[in-house]
């Protein structure tokens, strides 16, 4: 039986050099690794992000592919990319899903687990 599954892992980083807290502008990058952990080759077609800041302001982003790519991943293959977002608060979170189509025509969604965007903790 065919298994349709991508696994998503995320690493985040705060960019103080691009942020301006005095203007409520906090910039973060996130590095995503998408791995085909299923048994059928599949292509990532589009994405849907839900970005929430600490004030519960929500931005939704939809678009084709990721960073200009629609990677086709065979079982065991992975694709990595880095992107970024800006928040009006020093903390927030992101979650969403990728819409994928397998080589046999089966359509499925891959959930992007929620991850936190936050300034690093500093000791005084």
UniProtKB/TrEMBL annotation:
Gene (name only): apaG
Organism: Massilia aquatica
Protein name, per record: Protein ApaG
Signal peptide: none
Gene3D superfamilies for this protein: ApaG domain
Pfam families: DUF525
Alphabetical list of PROSITE patterns matching this protein: APAG
Ranges of residues in domain ApaG: 1-124
């Amino acid at each position: 039986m065919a298994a349709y599954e991508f696994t998503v892992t995320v690493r985040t980083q705060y960019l103080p050099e691009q942020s301006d807290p005095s203007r409520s502008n906090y910039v973060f990058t996130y590095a995503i690794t998408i791995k085909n952990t299923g048994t059928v080759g599949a292509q990532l077609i589009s994405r849907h992000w839900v970005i929430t800041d600490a004030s519960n302001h929500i931005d939704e982003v939809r678009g084709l592919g990721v960073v200009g790519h629609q990677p086709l991943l065979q079982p065991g293959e992975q694709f990595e990319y880095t992107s970024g977002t800006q928040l009006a608060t020093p903390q927030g979170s992101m979650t969403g899903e990728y819409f994928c189509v397998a080589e046999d025509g089966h359509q499925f969604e891959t959930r992007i687990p929620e991850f936190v965007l936050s300034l690093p903790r500093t000791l005084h």
